[in-house]
Design brief:
The chain has two domains: about 1-90 and about 175-290, Metal-dependent hydrolases (TIM Barrel, Alpha-Beta Barrel), CATH 3.20.20; about 95-160, DNA polymerase, domain 1 (Orthogonal Bundle), CATH 1.10.150. The protein is about 45% helix and about 15% strand. The chain has helices at about 1-5, 25-30, 50-60, 90-115, 125, 135-145, 155-160, 175-185, 205-215, 230-240, 275-290, and strands spanning about 5-10, 35-40, 60-70, 80-85, 190, 220-225, 245-250, 270-275. Helix 2 (about 25-30) packs parallel to helix 3 and helix 6 (about 135-145) crosses helix 7. The protein is globular and about 60 Å long. Bound molecules: zinc ion (2 copies). One zinc ion binds next to loops.
Length: about 290
């Protein structure tokens, strides 16, 4: 009974991407929260995995090596989670290097655009953040607020940094089938993260998309996410069951500063069971057995 009650969180960020806790800190925090397993799923990087897994071994907490890839999907935001990826897979590492380089170039372009708009923002100011993982638009917004160019972060996004805004530069993203392919090649299980960000309000369209992604190798859907409504959860669960997909879930934890979302709990009621991890492991075994 105690066993089946133990909880997991399959969507967690660290300072390797845009979280505020280092992999060690977040694993320690998971232990404090009484979690039995968690997945480290940083945006487009596997840098945090080794440290997290080691700390997990030390504390007897299962840390699943994962990643969250940004995928090209013009209608909305598509993120794919990859569970049990091999962080040393050369092919995945090569692709992630391409993404990181593109990210660095994009940042320079955005700073130049901001400067062109009369906003004094210096790259050295931005660089101060770089020792703590990836740099991106939230950091620019923060500096703009500090320097008096925006009232708050939201204002900086609304007037300058949002998609289509005057300082916005497109991000490099891989098409869904390629991203799923990278995850599979690295030995991972591909799962569609927080489907609501796809911006597909019609259920039929979302279902068609899920079927299409499944044909490319998708194996699961993130049903439980703090931003999902009850209705969304119901529909995503139905989709998963109807199409034989793994039901995943996690808090998308970025640290205690972000909007009251807590590790393992989301807004307080998540409580995801360890059976989720067992199912992931079964899927892995089936994959390796070639069934
Ligand atoms: Zn995401
Ligand atoms: Zn995430």
């Amino acid at each position: 009974m105690a066993e089946s009650m133990s909880r997991v969180d399959l969507h967690v960020h660290t300072t390797a991407s845009d979280g505020t806790m280092s992999p060690t800190e977040v694993v320690r925090y998971a232990k404090e929260k009484g979690l039995r397993a968690m997945a480290i799923t940083d945006h487009d990087t596997v840098e945090g995995i080794e440290e997290g897994v080691q700390e997990g071994e030390r504390l007897n907490l299962e840390v699943i090596p994962g990643v969250e890839l940004s995928v090209d999907f013009p209608k909305g935001t598509m993120h794919l989670l990859g569970y049990y990826i091999d962080p040393n897979c050369a092919e995945l590492a090569d692709k992630l290097v391409v993404v990181q380089q593109a990210r660095a170039e994009r940042n320079i372009k955005m700073i130049k655009k901001l400067q062109g708009l009369g906003i004094e923002i210096d790259f050295s100011e931005v660089k101060k953040f770089s020792e703590h993982g990836q740099i991106g638009r939230p950091h620019f917004a923060y500096i703009m607020v500090q320097n008096g160019y925006a009232r708050n972060i939201q204002d900086a996004f609304d007037r300058f940094l949002c998609k289509g805004g005057p300082a916005y530069v497109e991000k490099l993203k891989f098409p869904p089938e390629e991203a799923i392919g990278f995850i599979i090649k690295a030995g991972g299980i591909a799962v569609l993260a927080h489907p609501f960000t796809l911006n597909q309000p019609k259920e039929k369209e979302l279902e068609d998309l899920v079927v299409e992604l499944k044909e490319k190798g998708l194996e699961g859907i993130e049903v439980y996410h703090p931003e999902h409504t009850e209705g969304q959860k119901r529909f995503y669960r139905y989709l998963a069951q109807r199409h034989g997909l793994f039901i995943s879930g996690g808090s998308d934890f970025h640290g205690l500063t972000k909007g009251g979302v807590d590790l393992g709990n989301g807004y307080g009621d998540m409580g995801l069971p360890y059976s989720m991890v067992e199912e992931l492991k079964t899927r892995r075994r089936v994959r390796f057995a070639g069934i």
